[in-house]
């Protein structure tokens, strides 16, 4: 084997790719990670702008999800704290206490007593049910079967948006949505230093175990060779050879990398998209308002710096506003920014006076795939798409999305590569 031959090449240095790298590195696999951006992290990176730590929109790590145990197993320390469950629900210009906690239910004027009892029963049922049993239903169908009360239906859609970032209840699979509702009910952590602190620890873990990481390396064609190996071309003329590839880029781009004859079903995946406004202020005009969601419109607002250190000195206020996009929506960047700023104005009147810096991302992919009813049949028990080519990323799990899917599929793909290489080694 040549110098330029690797047991595994990982394409993409986001959360999925770095989890794969850390797992492969620990197992002593000769591993190369290629990332097209100037630095690793993908959508889990944190940009430092004027000393303020901006995740790419609001990022909350689910305490009871799939990612936390995998990160801990890999030695990643997660510091930060859990925001209080509650806040406000906005219905036009009216606001109500969110009935997302026992006190919230008692205090909220959104629901009458009969509705409150029904709502508590539905939350209890969701906590206990088996999400897989609802794989034939969309979330909209689940909601229609669950309740006829319009306000409770709206609450379920709001909670659904919060945990999945999806604003397409008529399309998203109920089983994935319910799995994320169960995870969401366990609470979240806002991470100190932003999600970059997770990325940095995974990166260091991989490098310590001799994984080579190359940034500014945009992978172009992937060619399967007759001897069962793969050839990878980057901008550099020297091709790279490997026994296994873990692909973590967008699902829609994979066919293109494999050549014209390849038509993978992942081309059809619709991403989940949103508009995010990341804001740093010297102080909040209204310090009482720390969290709000729209129930009549698809908005989110949360002050993350109340629970995590998100600036160099830890003195600034970092908050995120988000609008969940419907897949059929056409997006006008200026209009999106205006809508996000207006939503913030309702909650924090005069916020512009205290601004340190802000950033608007009008149309960002939150998840590579909007999970649909029946698309789970595209995933088999193995993450291999072709012999020696494995998929990982937030789109590559039948049952989960977001960081849960990214971390779980990154680990799974790496374990399959290790297993294959060990079997070949023992056979020789
Ligand atoms: C606004 C927003 C809010 C979010 N909030 C949450 C949240 O609260 N909780 C949560 O769990 N998740 C959240 N997420 C989702 C989470 O950030 C992602 O699910 C996760 O970071 C995806 O990791 P990944 O490795 O699958 O993909 P990515 O992070 O996209 O990584 C893929 C990497 O591959 C690289 N790449 C692509 N093509 C190539 C190529 N040809 N050659 C080389 N490199 C390539 C890309 O540059 C990228 O770095 C949020 C995302 C957004 C955008």
Automatic annotation (TrEMBL):
Residues passing through the membrane, by range: none
InterPro entries linked to this entry: Amino_oxidase, FAD/NAD-bd_sf
Residues forming coiled coils: none
Location of the Amine oxidase domain: 15-418
A GO molecular-function descriptor: oxidoreductase activity
SUPFAM superfamilies membership: FAD/NAD(P)-binding domain (SSF51905)
PANTHER family documented for this protein: PHYTOENE DESATURASE
Family the UniProt entry places it in: Belongs to the carotenoid/retinoid oxidoreductase family. CrtN subfamily.
Protein name as catalogued: Amine oxidase domain-containing protein
Naturally occurring in which organism (per UniProt): Bacillus infantis NRRL B-14911
